[in-house]
Specification:
Length: about 450
Amino acid sequence: MKNIIKEVLPESIAEEVGIEVGDILLSINDTIIDDIIDYRFLAADEEITLQVQKASGEVWDIEIEKDYGEELGLEFGGGIMDKAKSCSNKCVFCFIDQLPKGMRETLYFKDDDSRLSFLQGNFVTLTNMKEEDIDRIIKYHISPINISVHTTNPDLRVKMLTNRFAGQIYERMERLAENGIMMHAQIVCIPEMNDGEELEKTINDLYKLYPQVNNVAIVPIGITKYRENLHKVKTFTKETSKETIDLVKRLQDKFYKEISEPFVRLSDEFYLVANEEIPDADFYNGYSQIEDGVGVTRYFRESISSQLDELDLSKKGEYTVVTGDLAYNEVKSAMASITSKNKKIKITVEKVLNKYFGETITVSGLLTGTDIINHLKNNIKTPYLIMPDNMFRRGYELAPEEYIMLDDVTIPMIEEALGVKVIPCDYSGDGFIELLNSYNEEE
């Protein structure tokens, strides 16, 4: 049953009024609660009446007076109270469609749920939404929403998403913008499909909705070796990456003059593949798009550089750091700056090629435990193995020993296979020097 209360926070309003784990929330102010959005919106008021069904079947009406927006202290199962809406698209670039068989079932689920966009930052396409769903976003002011746009050309979007409803995207975004909904847009860019003139048109269309469309992130398509019977696509080369950088730079210069910020940003992969310099820190304006790989390299550099003076020079130790092909040179340079500062620290950087998904996948976040173990087996010479935590499914509820990789390999499994201590670290470089200080042995 939906709306079962899984946790009542200690010393909360809910605990004070006698709500218990296992109770069922039926309504707030006589409105039936369908999901977490209803709950968040209705529970924000200063005066509310909860209808709660106890384990005995008895129904309580509980009147509460509180500050506006003050939390009740209730937690529900599943995050959104019911099942996430699955994706109805068949996108030509979908990574899930390129997964090998035999992985855990949850990896094959494609969510496309605006509630998860609001709560967890997931990107949605808006293709499986009815007009009443758009009305609800506006009514409850569900904002911001992260939207997978890809193109504003209706015919091209239908083709790219293989969904006859996909062409409505811009009309819906216009309506959301008119009602004050903040949006972040993402474009998965594919050579000879939605790049070039199509990309320029899409960016300019989205810019017309600024500031409600607050920013745009462009990421290149990722292709695994498992694309049998899928649409034939190309990946970005050094030349086409440079062409895309130049196109976007021209638009960024225009936007800078008008709104004093670039509006649209490319993920780091474009710059690294093109062998072009990464923009400076100010360009990324707080790194709000870092989860899209936008600015990770610059943030990593800044993090290591700013922490370097904190390195404890009385410590020593030997470490191996693993990374993917794309970030290898960057990570190697950063580790060299550390070992130059303290020559008693030895760090070996290992570039692990992605055999599991194919060597066209070069980012470290898509490496698997299988490839790391195979690469380092009988080859690692240090007692510690440092791994970026974006290689793992993780969360506040998980201890490091429960972190799990895409192929279901866990930290204890890696430690047993390699005979080392695995240290997960923030992939952005935050706290890396502190981590070394805590694990180093004193001279």
